[in-house]
Amino acid sequence: MKRIKAFLVPFVLRYLRTIGRLALSRSRATVIGIAGSVGKTSTREALFAILKDVGPTHMVSGNSETGVPLGLVGLFPHDYSPADWARMMVTAPLRVGFLKHIRYIIVEMGIDDPYPPKNMEYLLTIVKPDIGIITEESAAHTMQFEKILDSKIILTDSERLKFLVEAITREDAKMIKQDKCALGIVNGDNKFLTPLSGSKVLTFGRSNDAAIRITDYSVDIHKTTFSYVLGDTPITFQFKGFAFPKDLVYVFAPAILAAYKLNIPLDVIKKNLEKNFTPPRGRESLLAGINNSIIIDSSYNASKPSVLSFLEMTATLKRQSRRHTIVVLADMLELGNESQIEHEAVARAIGTIPDTLYLVGPLTKRFILPIVEKKLKHVEWFPSVIELNQALSNIPIRSLILFKGSQGNLWLEESIKLLLKNKEDVSRLCRQNAFWQRVKKAAGRWVEV
User: Fold this and answer.
1) In what order do the strands lie in the sheet with 324-330?
2) Is 281 helix (H, G, I), strand (E, B) or coil?
3) Which domain covers residue 229, as residue numbers?
4) DSSP structural state of residue 78
5) Are both 272 and 373 inside the same structural domain?
6) Cα torsion for 143, 430, 42, 177, to the nearest 10°?
7) Which of 13, 60, 402, 425 could join 296 in a cystine, given CB atoms 3.0 to 4.6 angstroms apart?
8) What is the mean pLDDT of residues 384-394?
9) How far apart are CA 410 and CA 384, in angstroms?
10) pTM of the model as a whole
11) Residues with Cβ < 8 Å from 36, sequence gap 6 or more?
């Protein structure tokens, strides 16, 4: 089987790359690419929310070496089975005209490795964006980039982390440095991105010289408000029924700026974003829970910046609502040798925010538990969601519960199922399709409701 796969993979990649290129050659659409360590998917969704009522807009569903070309012909996997792959391979050539009448194409360009086919250089052989957005750069996917370290050179932890994030940034930056990109939009508050400059690069952030400047943010359990200044014009967005962390100011800002540079009026941008934006599953959902609890679902993935942002928001909501606060935190994965640094930074930030802290996975036990158990009275660690679910069976009335963890085999969304007041909200959770049901059942982690 391994030999067959090794033979087929290069063929499949060449085939899909050709299909993706052919589809784009038949389109006159403006292509907006989105890269970065954090916030790519939410930025993609925000931009789609703005553009979809302006003109025919296609948001590519995948972000990988296979997901991007398949998405360019409007295909996506159902269950990743051999039959599913055969379906897509046969159907793809019949859909090369899919983009013919599309005006805007939004592509999330995710990199997991410094080498092809999982790097930016490879993705750029499929699609070269006209507008490139880089959201944030941090220690995500550093494990795969460790292969470029020179074992003969001894680095401190901070030096190694800086080297790896700089390497990831250089790879992402290739998106806006390629000739076809007419406009680059980058996070001006991120120290790894500030060296990117030039006539075609605009920044977003809190500095006075940012093209779109962040000015204010507030949140409660009923709404979130973000305020900006674009040029000399102030603009405020209010999202009712959502509790978004502060770092989402860095998600909306580049989407607003990109739309503005596409000559979309600010009043249209405001109306469309407030009306159409819905957070991706498992990122920033606010769900009603049993015992009059409120669940903050950020179970899809986790990096240090996103965990810190959600902890800060949870602290604010706790002060406002005076609810018993539970934080469920699972391992942050794919950090390689930087895992200890990143987990310990999170541990120090936790402070006394939760009344109860539940940790899940071997990394939280090794790096977070020794720090937080000295500060908090109620801390428990669990090897998996199976043991966690037993502890969640008796949550206090009016609890505020944050779920945060990386993709992997922990799958916190299965614990959230048990706490939902409205079982139909299962459809709002991540990783619930047939493929994930099969995987989780095989691992003994699937929860029926």
Assistant:
1) 285-289, 293-298, 399-404, 324-330, 356-360, 379-382
2) coil
3) 2-276
4) S
5) no
6) 40
7) 402
8) 91
9) 6
10) 0.86
11) 43, 133, 134, 135, 136, 137, 172, 187
Same domain? For 238 and 94 the reply is yes
Residue 202: CATH number of its domain: 3.40.1190.10
Per the listing, tokens 């703005």 go with 50
Q: Which helix (H) or strand (E) holds 382?
A: strand 379-382
For residue 367, the cross-strand partners are none
- CA-based nearest residue to 280, from 24, 63, 98: 63
Distance CA 439, CA 423 (A): 22
- Predicted confidence (pLDDT) at residue 283 exceeds the cutoff of 90: no
Q: Which uninterrupted H or E stretch holds 96?
A: none
> Regarding beta strands 324-330 and 356-360, do their DSSP bridges make them parallel or antiparallel, or are they unpaired?
parallel
Residue 168 shares a structural domain with residue 193: yes
- Yes or no: say if 148 and 140 are a contact pair by the CB < 8 Å rule: no
Q: What is the distance between the alpha carbons of residues 34 and 129, in angstroms, rounded to a whole number? A: 9
Among candidate residues 229, 258, 276, the one where a domain is terminated: 276
Name the pairing type of β-strands 223-230 and 212-219.
antiparallel
Question: In angstroms, rounded to a whole number, what is the distance separating the alpha carbons of residues 109 and 124?
Answer: 9
Q: What pLDDT does residue 280 have?
A: 82
Compute φ and ψ for 311, nearest 5 degrees. -65, -40
Residue 448 domain-assigned? Answer: no
CA distance readout (Å), 125 to 19, 71, 255, 302: 12, 15, 24, 29
Residues 137 and 50 in one domain: yes
Strands 30-35 and 399-404: unpaired
Burial of 305 (0-12, 13-18, 19+ CB in 10 A): buried
Task: Give the mean model confidence (pLDDT) for residues 98-113.
Answer: 96
Model pLDDT for residues 45-89, shown as the tens digit of each residue? 999 999 999 999 999 999 999 999 999 999 998 888 889 999 999
User: Cβ distance 62 to 40 under 8 Å?
Assistant: no
Is the predicted pLDDT of residue 232 greater than 70, yes or no?
Answer: yes
Which of the 8 DSSP states describes residue 280?
Answer: P
Residue 112 tokens read as 């997991």
- Between CA 433 and CA 440, with CA 434 as vertex, the angle to 5 degrees is 90
- Helix H or strand E encompassing 167: helix 157-177
140 and 33, same structural domain?
yes
**Domain end (from 238, 258, 276):** 276
Q: Position of tokens 């360590």?
A: 37
Same-domain pairing of 38 and 82: yes
Residues 6+ apart with CB under 8 A from 344: 367, 368, 371
3-class SS at 357?
strand
Residue 449 lies in a domain: no
Backbone angles phi, psi at 63, to 5 degrees: -135, 15
Residue carrying structure tokens 């799958």: 411
